[in-house]
Amino acid sequence: MAAIAMLLALSAPASAQETPTEREAAREVLQKMDALERSLEVPALVARLSSTSATRDAVAARARQLMESEMLALSDDICTHPEVGYKETRSVQKLAETLRTHNFSVEVGVGGFDTAFKARYRGGSGRPNLGVIVEYDALRGTTGAFHGDQHCAQGPVGIAAAVAIAEFLEKEQLPGTVTVFGTPAEELLEPSAKTQMHRNNVFDGMDVIVRSHASTTTSRPAPGFGTCCLNIDGVKYTFGGAPAHQMTAWNGRNALTAVMTLFQNIDSVRSNMRPEARIQGIITEGGAAPNVVPDRTQADFYIRYPDEVYLRQVREFVDNAAKAAALATGTKVKIDNYGSARDGISTATLAELAFAYLKKYGAGKVQEAPGKPQGFEESGSVSRDIPGVGFSAYTSDWPNHTYEMDQDNLKPVGHGGFTVQAQAMAALLHDVATDAGYRAAVEREFTGIKALFGEYLQALEKAYQVPKVADPD
C-alpha cells in the first residue's frame, strides 16, 4: 500500500493534464491539486472501502444476477435495432418498460428532448441522491446506423446497477434516492443533449452521477480537468452563390468551389497551429446537378483541441479560412456554431475506487497507469457541476466506432465486460450511499478541483499569446 501511495503521489503532477504546454503553464495550479490529492490519502481510502463487505458484495451480486437474467437480453435487443440520435424511440420504450417493471416512475420527454427520460425509484427518500446516466444512440454509418460504440449496453448496465442499489436501500430502510437519466444523441452536438438538459435543471440535486462506456482496455482517468475527446466546437459553414449553366459558369458564383477552397485554406495553415489540434470536416451539401453551378453548399466541422483556451485560436483560423474562401470565390458564407463540448472534472476518489471494483469483479486487459483527466460525460457541462465517474471496462477487442466493436456487443467479450461494469457500478453506489466519510472526501476533492479551474484557464491564457503581425511596408 505504501508503494501505491508513493506512486500516486509522484505521478499525479506529471499526468494531471494532457499536453506539455498545459502542464508547464499551469504548474502552480497542478501543485495545488497534487497537495489536495495527497491530503485525501486516496489509496488508503480505496483500500478501506474495497475490503471485505458482505452488503456491498450482495448488491454487486444482485446487479450480476439482473444482467444475466434479463439485461443482457435487453442489451442484445437494442444493439440489433440501432437508432441514431434523437430518433431512439424504440430504445427508450424498451428501457422505460424495464424501469417501470422494477418500480421506477418514468417521465419521457424531459429537458426539451422527446427521447430523453428521467426515472426515479419509487421507494427511496432523503439523501444522498444517486444518479445514473444511460445512452442508447447509434452511430451514423454510410450503410446505416450501427452500435460501434456500444451505447446499446449502457442502459441495461445502468439499470442493473440502479435496481440493485435501490432495492438494497429500501430493504435496509436507508436514506437515499436513485434516479436514471436517459440522455439521447451522445454522438451529436446539434445540440448537446446533456448540456441542454443540465441547463433545464434535469440533473439538479444529484450528489453523484455514474455511467459506463465501451473500451478496449480497463482504465480510469487521472484527476483534473479534461474530456474524453478534446474540447470541441461543432460548426457548419454554409456558402451561398448564384446558379448558372456550367457551360457559362461565369454567369454564376460557385458555392462548391468555395467549400473546396475552405478545405484547402485550412490545410495551408495547419503548420501554424499547435500539433494537438484536430480539424475534422465533411461536405454535407455539394450541389444538386453537375450541369448547374451550385448556389448552396455546406461543410460540417468538429474543431478540437485539448483545452478551450487555445481552441479559440484554432476556431479563428478555420472561421477566417471560410471567410477567405467566400471572398476569393465571390460567394457568401454563414458560420453556425451549433454545439460544443468542454472540459469536465475528474476525481481520484471516484475514479480509483471504480477502477478497484472493475478489477475486483474480473475486468480484463487492465491498464494500470491512469489516463488523461476526463469528466464522466463528454459535454463537460454536467461533470463541471456534479461529481461523477465513468466505468470503463474491457468490452471489445476492436477500436471504438468500428463494425467489429458492434459485433462484440453480442459476444462473450461484450457480455462479460458489461456485467463487470454493472457490478462495479453497483458496488461504488453502495459505498456512496452508506459511507458519509467517503461522500465527504468526494465532495471535498470535487470542490477543490473546481475552485482551481479558473486559475488553470488564466494560466493557459498567458501561455497561448497570439503573435503580433506587423503591417507590411
Structure, explained:
By secondary structure, the protein is of the alpha+beta class. It has 2 domains: 54-227 and 346-452, Aminopeptidase; 231-341, Alpha-Beta Plaits, CATH 3.30.70. It is 46% helix and 18% strand. It is built from 15 helices and 14 strands. It has helices at 2-15, 20-25, 27-40, 42-49, 54-79, 89-101, 154-172, 193-199, 255-269, 308-329, 348-360, 382-385, 403-408, 412-434, 436-463; strands spanning 104-108, 117-121, 129-134, 139-141, 144-146, 177-182, 208-213, 224-226, 231-240, 278-285, 296-305, 332-341, 344-346, 388-392. The strands form 4 sheets. A 6-stranded mixed sheet has the order 1-2-6-3-7-14. Helix 3 (27-40) runs antiparallel to helix 15 (436-463), helix 5 (54-79) packs across helix 14 and helix 7 runs parallel beside helix 14. The longest helix has 28 residues, at 436-463. 52% of the residues are buried. Residues 1-15 have low confidence and may be disordered.
Strand order in the sheet with the most strands: 1-2-6-3-7-14
Secondary-structure element string: HHHHHHEEEEEHEHEEEHEEHEEHHEHHH
Mean pLDDT: 95
CATH architecture of the largest domain: 3-Layer(aba) Sandwich
What fold name stands as the CATH topology of the largest domain? Answer: Aminopeptidase
The value of Rg in angstroms is 24 Å
The biggest beta sheet reads: 6 strands, mixed
CATH class of the largest domain: Alpha Beta
Write out the CATH superfamily name of the largest domain: Zn peptidases
Shape: globular
What is the count of DSSP helices, taking H or I runs of 4+ residues? 15
Number of domains: 2
